[in-house]
Amino acid sequence: MSEHPTEPLVSVLIPTHNRPDYLEVALRSALAQRYANLEIVVSDNGDDDLTAQRIQPYLQAHPHIRYFRRQGMSATENWDKCMELSRGEYLNYLMDDDAFHPDKISRMMQCFQAHPDVGLVTSFRQLIDERGNPLPPVEGTERLFAQDTMVTGSSFGRYILALGSNLIGEPTTVLFRRADLRGPFGTFLDRRYTVLSDIATWLSILARWDAVYLVDPMSYFRIHFQQDQRDNSTRLRASLEWMTLFLDSHEHGLFSEEEPAFLDLLAAKLGGLSQYLTLHYPSIRGGSIPAQDIVDGMQRCFHALLHRQGAPSPLDSPPSGTSGTHVASKGRP
Asked: Would residue 202 count as lying in a domain?
């Protein structure tokens, strides 16, 4: 970090858990940034001292690194601690197994400075294997444009919700302004998301701001065997969260499709979700998602699909003994 900064402070936030080898690679990529006014915040909820030992030489050599360790923090608490300890006007998470291109922050900050209507900057992300070798794109990670492009927030959000795919990228990929968050990371329309915390955040920003997409790979997303594996319950939770994002956006007039197009999309999404439930119900029964959450989510979808606009709804008045208030579950990034 420069001693006399003339540029806005950018905070690189690295939540880490039991990955000292990959963390060191990620940390070095943050230290290699050519943007001058930078701080790095590392929050560690690991089960041992290996990360603390590995990071000590970097803390002694680089005073702009801040390190916090508390064993037993949840993933969400670890993420939130990074943001709590940071001071930057701009924020970019860096997953402890990913890496930055050396020009990532400087290129993206140039976009913010050139386009005052922009709320986030993203890029093509290069997939890499456990040794850092490049991998071909998988569905949803292909390069979106042939050249650097500014995209309106409304059109980008509408396209993402229609496809049900995170075209913007994982947290490592995106630089955004702290002031544009509406609650903790993972919050959209006052509801905090568990599996789709990044998408919820991007949609919250896109509801008010435009985006820039850079075609060069400004980050590297690692695919390896140590990554969290999503079981059928987690995939189902993701599907239900996609539905909630889609319905909440429509009800609040954000990224809205015309009613016939909205209903067609909803019918297709509901059909896919129903098929998934039918195929995987043995492993979902007794899983981490309460059955009532699934029933409530499906009921809301069917009501939106079948209920005529302007007609009284049986869901507007909850049955006696039930509550009409939605309590959002605590999310984890």
From this structure: no
The structure tokens listed for 166 are: 């995170």
Per-residue pLDDT of 182-237, as tens digits, reads 999 999 999 999 899 999 999 999 999 999 999 999 999 999 876 655 677 788 88
Does a structural domain hold residue 163?
Answer: no
Structurally, how many domains does the chain consist of? 2
Q: Does the predicted TM-score (pTM) go above 0.85? A: yes
| Cα–Cα distance, 244 to 250 (Å, whole number) | 10
Q: Which domain holds residue 71?
A: 1-97
Residue 54 lies in a domain: yes
Residue 11 belongs to domain with CATH number: 3.90.550.10
In a domain, 48, yes or no: yes
Q: CA 189 to CA 254: how far, in whole Å?
A: 10
Tokens 């850079």: give the residue. Answer: 214
Is the separation of the CB atoms in 175 and 90 below 8 Å?
A: yes
**Whole-angstrom Cα distance, residue 137 to residue 142?**
5
- Rounded distance between C-alpha atoms, residue 144 and residue 123, angstroms: 9
Please name the residue that has the structure tokens 């507007």.
316
